User: Which sequence fits this backbone?
């Protein structure tokens, strides 16, 4: 019979997502484990990778059309209205991204050089609303919106997609990607973990920002089996 300590450890681990190593996936995008914890006002998401988190970024092309985006993503069971998007408008996901060809965080100076408009190449965070679509090779897009018509958070960068840039700083250290976000009463929320590539439409048409390739899905089927656990 399991002792109490072992039982509690097993119960807690059941709410994380464990994924086997896959040699066909680049190690920095090969998810081995994902989890999340919450207190009354904050939720911390993490994923552990087979390789060094954040060590691979898209190559710069020098232009926004067709620009690539690398992403560590936590799709969640939260309603998009939780952070200021239209209620029921898609899958609310938290993303850590890097894209050297454009800056979509105009309120923040991630690289600390005094210019808030040149930071896209550094890893930074977004809330996004995802929608399934056959128009993107990865099966999903960031929802296209009309600013002034669709509801957007106050810190959205006024792009015609459901993307918010609230300035939450990610931590990529060793084999772990981690980020803490303000979400009240987040305990029990469902989530998954995904590593993916996105690309801006080369002619600026819709879908404007497509998921073009998925490296790994922690659950294997995007079933959101993880649960946010209380901070111990």
Assistant:
């Amino acid at each position: 019979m399991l002792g109490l300590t072992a039982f509690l450890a097993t119960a807690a681990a059941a709410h994380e997502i464990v994924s086997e190593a896959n040699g066909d996936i680049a190690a920095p995008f090969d998810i081995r484990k994902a989890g999340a914890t919450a207190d009354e006002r904050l939720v911390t998401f993490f994923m552990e990778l087979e390789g060094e988190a954040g060590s691979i970024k898209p190559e710069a092309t020098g232009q926004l059309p067709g620009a690539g985006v690398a992403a560590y993503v936590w799709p969640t069971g939260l309603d998009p209205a939780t952070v200021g998007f239209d209620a029921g408008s898609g899958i609310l996901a938290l993303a850590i991204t890097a894209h050297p060809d454009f800056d979509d965080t105009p309120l923040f100076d991630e690289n600390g050089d005094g210019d808030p408009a040149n930071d896209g190449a550094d890893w930074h965070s977004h809330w996004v609303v995802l929608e399934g679509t056959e128009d993107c090779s990865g099966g999903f897009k960031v929802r296209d919106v009309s600013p002034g018509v669709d509801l957007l958070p106050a810190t959205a960068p006024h792009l015609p997609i459901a993307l918010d840039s609230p300035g939450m700083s990610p931590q990529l250290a060793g084999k772990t990607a981690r980020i803490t976000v303000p979400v009240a009463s987040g305990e029990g929320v469902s989530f998954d973990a995904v590593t993916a590539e996105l690309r801006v439409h080369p002619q600026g048409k819709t879908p404007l920002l497509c998921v073009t390739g998925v490296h790994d899905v922690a659950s294997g089927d995007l079933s959101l089996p993880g649960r946010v656990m209380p901070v111990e």
About this structure: The chain has a mean pLDDT of 91.
